[in-house]
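hey all, quick one before standup. I had two proteins in the batch that finished overnight and I want to keep them in one place so we stop losing track of which output belongs to which input. First protein below, input sequence then structure tokens straight from the run.
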Amino acid sequence: MTITPDAIVYWQLGPYAISATLVFTWVVMAILVLGSWLVTRKLTTGARVARGQLLLEIVVNAIRAQIREVVDEAPDRYLPFVGTLFLFIVTSNVLSVVPGFHPPTGSLSTTSALALCVFVAVPAFGIATHGAGAYFRTYLQPSPFMLPFNLLGEVTRTIALAIRLFGNMMSGTMIAAIALALAPLFFPVLMNVLGLLIGVIQAYIFSILALVFIAAATRAHDQTQAGAPNATGEANRG
């Protein structure tokens, strides 16, 4: 039983190796790029819409609605990043039911890379919203003594984000292998259905957590400013 696709190496030259993680990551990216090109090359606004365009519109509108619900503002700013995260993860997870396909999300290196993307995106969105100085001052709230703890929180939540996705995908693989060994005729169908459901849920959770972290970064400065006049007013009244 192969727990992680990193263990499957197709070609190696010295320290450089092409593993299943790398191969199937490119497979997923190729599927997304090719699928997007095929769907968007003939977009129409008439009464008759192609099935591919209709499916894409449903997915995009669902992602936009979820973003709007979390951040309570126009979703277009967050859609490219969060939507890409969701589509990559959900495609990788759903394709895991295909025989011979090794989902790259079952590799800790892939989930760590995705978590690092979120780690970089959080301050990027925060700085773009409030400026570098105002954003980095939030790490000194409510007291400068909190700086190391706020920085540690950024690192630990990134690690937790990577391990959560990897752990859930790895455990799903192990459970499927055990169930297949116990009842090879019945459990494969059930586990495939369950695998599809778990894959979609994990993609949703990862994307929502990334969005929550980004929304917190873009709102932190506003909350600090909103609290300052209240504190001053309280002091003056006292």
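OK second protein, same deal, sequence then tokens:
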Amino acid sequence: MAKRRARRPVQFKSTIAAAICARLAAGETLRTICRDPLLPAEEVVRGWAIDRPAFAAEMRRAREIGYATLADELLEIADDRSADTYIDDKGKPRSDAEAIQRSRLRIETRKWLLAKALPRLWGDKPEAGEGTSGPFPLEALVLGSLKPRSGSGK
């Protein structure tokens, strides 16, 4: 007899929601998270966010933390020179243009996503907030956009 595959959960459970949010905060995409066979499908999680405003708020906050993780990755990618060169068959070091272009693409993609997802902080012209000494608040560099905005009810 064939072995039955375990069904993906579809009923909302706070433990599953917390696991999803933890992974979002670590910088994973919802699509990647929902590929895990132990977690609900992406459309189920998005349905939970529509039906449960508290869960939607938790997801939004987790994504903001995840975006700060992406910002940290920008420096790591830019500073990683390990694949920039290789040794050819004559023993001479050569530039690896493909690896360099891949790093450039990874950086540009993350920059674009941050600018679109959080334009107030990562756009071309970030807005100055209260108590800032310049155009970019210090807490934005440290925490992303985690500081609650006044009057937003968050």
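Flagging for whoever picks this up: The chain is about 55% helix and 5% strand. The beta strands are 85-87, 93-95.
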